[in-house]
Amino acid sequence: MMERRAVLKGSASTVLALAAPGMAWADDTTGISATEIKIGSTTSLSGPVSALGIQDRAQEAFFRMVNEKGGVAGRQIKYIYYDDGFAPPKTVEQVRRLIESDEVAFLFNMLGTAPNSAVVTYINQKKVPHLFLSVNGDKWGDYQKYPWTMGFAPSARIESQIYAKYALSQNPKARFAILYQNDDLGKDYVAGVRDVLGADFDARAKAIAHEVSDPTIDSQIVSLKASGADVLLSGTTAKFAAQSIRKAFDIQWKAMHFIASGAASITGAINPAGTERSIGVISSAYVKDASDPEWANDKGVAEYVAFMQKYFPEGNPKDAYCIYAYTVALVLMQVLNQCGGKLTRENIMRQAESLKNFEVPTLLPGIKVNTSPTNHHPLRQVQLQRWEGAGWKRFGNVIEGAAL
């Protein structure tokens, strides 16, 4: 298996080339036949974070490309995804439909903390792989409580620790204001700052929550400014990050402003906030930015852009959510290739836990995917980036976690 990983390193085209016929058929199991493998997902095509639903549409196009190239071990991928509107009761309904009616082999890149939280226990009881979720919460790496579940992006708590430590390196006496979504995702951003400040948290930080159903967070930003904070951390999704950037600018709050990496999309947050209003905002990155001239001649980005042009022309290749979706899909292909034709739920999960220094051509240099049975955090590395008006500009070194 190590030889296979070495061959796959570094090229999307190589990854896809190995997803070809010729491997031994696996024993039939739920969602897998001699000719087909069913993959399921839920996303938000409607509702308050509908901009993120573009991920599933991009991945639908990705799997169409895979099928044209021969599929996986001679099987065509049938990708079934449903809209849950970011409403957990709807997620429950749709996931039951996927598992009990559609009989998918596994679930992939399901969107949202609250939606996934509503179904994670049920999915684990059913022993269905629940892979590479589009979430940032720390709890998705809890392999003991949720052995069939795995996130993908760096933990929000680790990201928050990195932000707090950087802010303190620039201003050791900094006071913090935290806008956070009132769910596990948002609470991780509060926890990360608390990890760094320790006993000083109550004296040096003020945190105010918002609900995902709130139409605006303007009043929270006004209240946070009144705390006298030097640092604003918006631990929320793109819609509300955009609102926080805009409101902070409008009330002339000059705080050092960090936004969640999951909210750093130019189309989802920066453009709605205003490119000039966003100057100076800091986030973190682990995926290459297809709009950055730095990657104009990069092979991995070129392959991604070619994919978008041929298979998803209605999408915007500069949209961070699209290249994220493509990146996660490449990692899933690595997992399925490592199965060696033995496509059972158990082996798919086992291979998801066996990624060793896997390099994805659309991840930033130096960032690698690693998992194990006791590590369900595939990515632990980020690099800070600052919005400079025309694009994001990375600075500093790649950081792995946050040594406290």
Would you give an account of this structure?
This protein folds into two domains: 2-153 and 295-373, Rossmann fold, CATH 3.40.50; 156-285 and 383-400, Response regulator (Rossmann fold, 3-Layer(aba) Sandwich). Helices cover 39% and strands 16% of the residues. It has 14 helices and 13 strands. The protein has helices at residues 2-8, 12-17, 54-68, 88-101, 113-126, 156-170, 184-197, 201-204, 218-226, 238-250, 266-273, 299-311, 320-338, 345-352, and strands spanning 36-43, 76-83, 106-108, 130-133, 149-151, 176-181, 205-210, 231-235, 256-259, 282-285, 381-387, 392-394, 399-400. Strands 2-1-3-4-5 form a five-stranded parallel sheet, with helices on both faces. A four-stranded parallel sheet has the order 7-6-8-9, with helices on both faces. Strands 10, 11, 12 and 13 form a four-stranded antiparallel sheet that branches. It is globular and about 65 Å long.
